[in-house]
Amino acid sequence: MPFITLVIPAYNEESLLPALLESIWISVAEWAREAGSVEVIVADNSSTDRTSEIARRSGAMVVNVPIRGIGAARNGGAAAAHGHVLCFVDADSRIHPQTFGAIAAAMDRPKVGGGATGVMPERWSAALRLMAAMTLPARVLGIDSGVVFCRSADFTAINGYRADLLVAEDVEFLWRLRHHVRRAGDALVRLRNVETITSTRKFDKYGHWRFMATLASLAVNRAVLPKRFRRDVQRYWYDDR
Prior knowledge:
three-stranded mixed beta sheet; 241 residues; Spore Coat Polysaccharide Biosynthesis Protein SpsA, Chain A; seven-stranded mixed beta sheet; single chain; 11 helices; globular
């Protein structure tokens, strides 16, 4: 049985998925307790391009998840996982070569219930630096991103991700996970020096400062215009590709 299962939710990611998969296999080669220690699952969320073909050719397992939604895709991949430790990473990322070794070492330590590698954009801008500063309080609490990891048993105990959330499902999941592991005296950790590199494609396409304005608009609409909120989220995060 694999020690780690990495789940990649993906929708029409043929352009960026190869770079992620290449970085994954490099990290597998850097750390492997034995053959098959890492299981890689691509949760294909009804792609219409070559996402599934690229994943299979790389050696990853492909799970088809017809319900469109990032939370549903994460849960669909997790349902097929066999690893003791579950990890999740977005398809437009590249992981650090030492990622799996760092996760395994963290999960072998007492009082660690999971965590994340942290994330770094592929390029910086003033808007991105401001957003990083705005998310600092959440990171202090263990609500981080990059490669997110936890024990499979804990993932099952809190019923995974909320499939009804179209955005911020990762924040909500980690908040519940944090409270769950604290009951056993454990904590979420942010690993050091293994940050995941993430694409800035949304910022580059729509403008870095416009992205900040979009987030503010979504926050307001979520409170007062829920139908418009879902429409805007659907357009920005789901219909884009």
